[in-house]
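Record type: monomer structure entry
Structure origin: computed from sequence
Chain ID: A
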Amino acid sequence: MVFSWNVMGLGQSRAHGFEPCTEFRFAMPDPVGDAAADSTAGADPSRPVATRGSDTVDAAWALWAASSTQTHLEGLVLDDGESWALSKLTRSRLQTAADDGRLITVTDGDLVGFTWRLWVKDIDSDEPGSQRRAVYPVAVWESPAAAAALFDAVARDAAAAGANETHVLIPETVAAVSDVATARVPVSDEPEFALRAELTDPAVRDAEWGRASWSLGLRATSGWTGLTAWRETTRRSPALILARR
């Protein structure tokens, strides 16, 4: 994954065999307790409502399979184990999240939106005080009203998990970003680009990145974790689509 402004990083990735895949950005609803969130939601009985339960997995999976989000992201969401990597969403991953009580769904007669909490961690930040982030690997919804209800639920979920900030992956499309904006939820300033490669291809697997490209990457963005870590990750998990930003 590469910041969209990191032109040098994008060029290096393409030069070493990676091809364009998709783009996304993060919605960042502020964690807020139940009372405050409910006061912003209003009392409109026609508004979609957030629910939980393992019996919603089939409906969530069907919504994902039919969604423009799945199409745009090519079936990818944030990976469960590797930070800053994407991997295919499977029904079993949704089932695990539901069984753990982390799956959040929105219903309006039928299921019209869902996401789940991937993890909550302390993060390094230049901001004063501790920063604890809740991350949600993708959000899917059918309408602006469903988006608003879903992000209200995320705000409550993150607060209950002890987080003071959130990252929710959304597709980089006009419809998705404007739905989030309509819900008055902040979004990240820039999108991120995802590139992919067939890691069994010797031209990619054995590419010599070298000192010049290493230095170029480090100058381009401090988000690089080092090419050694990236190569080890790809060899261990060849199905994992993308590397670090």
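Annotation 1: Residues 35-43, 209-245 have pLDDT under 50 and may be disordered.
Annotation 2: The longest helix spans residues 144-160.
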